[in-house]
Amino acid sequence: MSVEDFRELRVWQLGMELAEETYRLSQHFPKHEVYGLGSQIQRSAVSIPANIAEGRATGSTKTFLRHLAIAQGSLAELQTHLMVAERIRYGNGEQTKPILERCTQEARMLRSLRNRLRRRIA
Fold first, then answer.
1. Is 74 exposed, middle or buried (0-12, 13-18, 19+ CB in 10 A)?
2. Which DSSP symbol is given to 5?
3. Which pLDDT score is estimated for 2?
């Protein structure tokens, strides 16, 4: 991989944007959700770019692949939390739809990167 720094990866950059957006959204949740759904959303969102960064920083393709898989799991968790928030009316479609669309884009990018890396070690 020609990227020297994880911060150059578009998949990491989008993950950071997702984390920012979900933090902004969860700030408007009821106070009793500070340690509930709001916290879950924040942790799963931050886990995405954090795992991309950690995996890339190791220098090992196999380890990077493992961390990308974890990031993908955190992304699925985030999508689920956002859908729950929408269902219980902590966020409306106008607020959650753009975030969920970015999640779909992030999922495609993670899948593509994982596939390229798998081909490299095969």
1. buried
2. S
3. 55
CA 58 to chain centre: 19
**How is 13-27 classified by DSSP, letter by letter?**
HHHHHHHHHHHHHHT
Q: Tell whether the model's pLDDT for residue 1 goes beyond 50.
A: no
CA distance 87 to 76: 17
Per-residue model confidence as pLDDT tens digits over 54-104: 999 999 999 999 999 999 999 999 999 999 999 999 988 899 999 999 999
Distance CA(56)–CA(101), nearest Å, equals 25
- In angstroms, the CA 14 to CA 11 distance is 5
The domain 6-121: what is its CATH number?
1.20.1440.60
Residue 20 Cα distances to 70, 92, 117, angstroms:
19, 18, 28
The pTM of the whole model exceeds 0.90: yes
Give residue limits of the domains in the chain: 6-121
